[in-house]
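Async update (no meeting this week)

Hi team, since we skipped the sync, here's where things stand on the single-chain job. The sequence we agreed to prioritize is pasted below, unchanged from the tracker. I ran it this morning and attached the output directly underneath so nobody has to dig for it. Comments welcome in thread, and please keep replies under the output.
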Amino acid sequence: MLLKGMHLSLMIGPVVATPVPYEVINALIQVEVTTNTEGPSAFQLSFNLSNRSRLHTLFLLSAGTPIPMVRVIVVAIIQGTAEVLIDGVVTHHEVAPGTDASHSMLKITGEDLTRVMDYIDFSGIPYPAMPREARVAAILAKYMTIGVVPMIIPSVLIDVPLPVDKIPSHRGKDLAYLRQLAAEVGHIFYVEPGPSAGTTVAYWGPELRMSTPQPALSLDMDAHTNVESLTFRYQPEKRVMPYVVIQHELTKVPVPIPIPSDLSPLSPPLGAVSGFPQHIEPLLGCAKMTVPQAIMVGMAAAVRSAEIVTGTGTLDVLRYGRTLKARKLVGVRGAGEAFDGLHYVKSVSHHIRRGEYKQSFTLVRNGLLSTVSQVPV
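Output:
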């Protein structure tokens, strides 16, 4: 037990993680987990161990297997509600001197289960008459044995290649190929742990910036204040209007197509005043795409370039009452008229030690002034 109303569960094991013995959990002094919308989630566990502890041998030998599949699952139980913070594998370990001569600190570092998808090169596997969605399903099927559950959102550009014309084949490792297939239609790919320990959702689809808002982050509101710090930056110079250039199929004449950032129905504006793009830049690699495909890729790039409001801050989880989650909306109040309203949570880091559970976070929005009259608390 770390705090009143909060417990931490730790599971470690080869392929299938199991609850660790008391000796391990008692030696745990710090947990750090980072979830980012760009790139894999990462974690680091710090243990304070006696130099004669058998845990040194346990971790060092298990992390030295030919395929490093030492699985780690961290679950936080806050006021009776369990949330899986990370489900991943160990990628690195190090031992450093401790506070005295008889103890040392063992640090275990790892990434989410996308790391497992980056081990083996499967180049050359054919996918006859299979659209992108079917190829994604076939790739993810092999990871269902370790608890990966696919969530595939079809693209509006479902393209079934005729075997007499071409047969698509696998290129590179699974992770890179999944991301390539997603990028070709303006989609994204990531994994999210949970909802229960031992399961992970693998999402392949459009970037959705719509969700039920999380309880508001409140500033300077006396007893209702639930964040320790929150600052905002307004950077209108970051906004870019991308344009794609495609070739007309018959004449081969290049045709430029500008992409407004407010065009995406899956990422509605969160700021009422977004200003005008400061730059107009070409989006490379679209010449051989169809018009709908190029527009979808351009829309995804335009949404990311419109993140001209950035907020960074920290909060105490128990005071907030729950954990703040990335890839979802959250309300802000008390920050001033320009920044109050809904924001998209781009990244979250968990910092857990005995007697303390805090989070640092990054919020983004496409403009100033709220588009909603109130936020949930």
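Quick observations from my side:
The CA atoms of residues 261 and 302 lie 5 Å apart.
The longest strand covers residues 81-97.
Reply here if anything looks off.
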